[in-house]
Amino acid sequence: MDNKLLEILVCPLCKGPLVYRKPQQELICRGDRLAFPIKDGIPVMLESDARELDPTEEIPK
């Protein structure tokens, strides 16, 4: 995942910052507790494709 792209991407819902979770290939929004998938190196920033984080799932800092 390109670092410059990571710097400018925000959550499409709340416009908050995202956390890159490399092993799972996801971008995490802490505020909305959503994980947006990265498919073939391309972030899929659609709410319909995001998964809700489990309440016990820890979010990286």
Automatic annotation (TrEMBL):
It comes from the Bacteria. SUPFAM superfamilies: Trm112p-like (SSF158997). InterPro entries: Trm112-like. Pfam families: Trm112p. Belongs to the UPF0434 family. This is UPF0434 protein PZA18_05795. It comes from Parachitinimonas caeni.
